[in-house]
Design goal:
The chain has about 110 residues and is of the alpha+beta class. The protein has helices at about 1-10, 50-70; strands at about 15-20, 20-25, 35-40, 80-85, 100-105.
């Protein structure tokens, strides 16, 4: 998995932040002026696999790192968007749970 390899440092990425169980890095194909991905360092194919207390804790850590990254990158005051795609119809293209942190422009609704 490409994201597993980024998490271990095998593939270089522009790392923005780390926590005990998650890493945040810049997206190679940004969809907004600021576009960061936050991934758990352990492999889960999607949010659908984040079950039970351990899954809830991992999702919490990923979201908390996303909030921290948004603040550190100056997005907190103007606002930002979190996106987590799950499955083919949800738009997931890399099958490792990941959170998109998007900001730096006005977001539109509906998103897709």
């Amino acid at each position: 998995c490409i994201f597993c390899r980024i998490a271990t440092g095998e593939i270089p990425a522009q790392i923005v932040a780390r926590s005990d169980h998650a890493v945040a890095f810049r997206d190679l194909s940004p969809q907004a002026p600021t576009h960061v991905l936050v991934i758990p360092t352990s492999h889960l194919a999607s949010a659908a696999e984040a079950t039970g207390e351990a899954g809830a804790a991992l999702l919490g850590e990923v979201m908390a790192l996303g909030v921290r990254v948004a603040a550190e990158l100056g997005l907190a005051e103007a606002g930002y968007r979190f996106v987590m795609n799950t499955g083919r119809e949800g738009g997931q293209t890399v099958h490792h749970l990941h959170l998109h942190v998007l900001g730096g422009r006005q977001m539109r609704w509906p998103p897709g």
